[in-house]
Design brief:
This protein has about 350 residues and is α+β, with helices and mostly antiparallel strands. A hairpin with a 6-residue loop joins β8 and β9. α8 packs across α9.
Length: about 350
């Protein structure tokens, strides 16, 4: 006996003739994510578990025989790490990438399989990272505090990723489908990427992408992290061209910038020794808000300085334990790292300004 519910199943271009199958929009959706587009626009049923991407697509992004790319000063590099404790089954992995035009290139990949000492592996990875002139690395959002501490001991900051692992894989997919990522000749990386599984819900982009049971994706994870971070970076070349949020470490004698005397824009920054006999006073600078944040075990502080810039960024003063102003940095995270680096005796200076 017929039911009371009528179900109509047809692709978008049948239900909505104003959006034909060969339209630019539909073509773009299929190129970006074929599996999702087939369910969302093609009215095709989807399984609970699907493959992530085909081996042929991934292989087309590999440059045969290239296992690592050397440092080049014209590029800005991005590093993503997936730390592990060394006693379980997970590897400690790292990938380095940079962006050139509309492509992302993977430059180096490292994997330490258990058992290992996480302290020793961090030191080994840090040496390579410094060779690419990188002073910040990103990592899994669920990384423990020990990871940041371990990298900081080598003068390298650690930032937790803004993306979950599944989100990284979702953003990596269009780069693979459009051949906008250049992978290294690494069979383990290729096998892990093609072995990923998508657990999806019909009619929604909500999905989980992960390795299969008893599988691993430690290498694939850092490749996705480095690639997506590089892709979303606004700076594609030129490590020597600073942005407002960049902290630069140089081999020059220890120096810090005290700021612009009397005015935000008057004159050039005043350079003084790190521990000046006559440090800048509050009267010499702009009004500083009465908010102090203690940073690290050495008693340094950071404090908001003035109002927000036109682009929404906040300038911070970095202060010694006796509240002498040592330098300025744009962004709270950069200011925190600068305070800790100064306390550790690193050579640090800042560039940039706001309005």
């Amino acid at each position: 006996m017929p039911g009371r519910v009528l179900v109509a199943r047809a692709p978008t271009w049948v239900m909505n003739p104003t959006l034909p199958r060969d339209s630019e929009f539909i073509a773009e959706q299929y190129a970006r994510d074929p599996a999702w587009a087939r369910g969302e626009y093609g009215a095709e049923w989807r399984d609970d578990i699907e493959g992530y991407i085909s081996l042929d697509v991934v292989r087309s992004c590999v440059v045969s025989g290239v296992r690592e790319r050397p440092f080049a000063a014209r590029h800005t590099y991005h590093v993503f790490v997936d730390a592990a404790g060394g006693s379980g089954t997970d590897s400690y992995t790292m990938a380095i990438a940079h962006k050139e035009g509309d492509r992302v290139l993977i430059d180096a990949v490292r994997e330490a399989r258990p058992p290992f000492s996480p302290t020793d592996i961090t030191a080994e990875f840090a040496r390579l990272v410094k060779g690419y002139q990188v002073r910040w690395v990103r990592g899994d959002a669920y990384a423990g505090d020990w990871v940041a501490d371990a990298w900081r001991q080598h003068g390298i900051g650690f930032r937790k990723s803004d993306w979950t692992k599944s989100q990284l894989y979702v953003d990596l997919l269009p780069l693979l489908n459009a051949a906008q990522i250049v992978l290294l000749d690494d069979d383990r990386a290729v096998n892990q990427i093609t072995g990923l599984e998508r657990r999806v819900k019909f009619g929604s982009r909500s999905e989980t992408i992960d390795h299969p049971d008893r599988g691993h994706d430690d290498v694939a994870n850092v490749i996705a992290g480095a690639a997506v971070t590089a892709w979303h970076s606004k700076r594609t070349i030129g490590n020597a061209v600073p942005g407002l949020d960049d902290m630069f470490y140089t081999p020059r004698p220890p120096r810090v910038i005290l700021g612009y005397p009397k005015s935000k824009s008057a004159g050039s920054p005043t350079y003084v020794a790190r521990r000046p006999r006559n440090p800048a006073t509050r009267e010499d600078l702009h009004t500083i808000k009465e908010v102090k944040i203690k940073v690290g075990p050495h008693g340094h502080y950071i404090q908001p300085h003035g109002g927000l810039a036109n682009d929404g960024r906040q300038k911070f003063a970095v202060m010694s334990p006796d509240e002498s102003i040592l330098m300025f940095a744009w962004g709270e995270e950069e200011a925190r790292q600068a305070a800790m680096d100064i306390a550790d005796g690193l050579q640090v200076s800042a560039r940039g300004g706001g309005s």
